[in-house]
Amino acid sequence: xxxxxxxxxxxxxxxxxxxxxxxxxxxxxxxxxxxxxxxxxxxxxxxxxxxxxxxxxxxxxxxxxxxxxxxxxxxxxxxxxxxxxxxxxxxxxxxxxxxxxxxxxxxxxxxxxxxxxxxxxxxxxxxxxxxxxxxxxxxxx
Length: 141
Description:
By secondary structure, this protein is of the alpha+beta class. It has a single domain (about 1-140), classed as Sufe protein. Chain: A (Alpha-Beta Complex), CATH 3.90.1010.10. It contains 6 helices and 3 strands. It has helices at about 1-20, 20-30, 75-90, 95-100, 105-110, 120-140; strands at about 40-45, 55-60, 65-75. A 3-stranded antiparallel beta sheet has the order 1-2-3, covered by helices on one side. The mean pLDDT is about 95.
């Protein structure tokens, strides 16, 4: 258990030195919305310009309220923290409210990530929007 604490402290320092703010670091370390949802109402995937891959799982109540969201991510700390922050912004919202979330909203929650990682925020938001739009398209058939 000591190794985990030391590892977490070392990760925290390394990320801080790289330009990540504490909220972004917390999202990365905690990864509270990583994983999948059994019987998700929608699963969509997106690949970023850097090669990072995100898969989003959506559980939606009454065809309108986002009850649960999970991401599976193959990517860097920026991608993971951005996706985790995006979940906090949309969970409990209607799908139409969630579609109004933009890159700036996610950046405000993270407070700061290195400039060269801003594309990670775009990927998280695009993946979230893609999942919601795919769900809306599927339900309108």
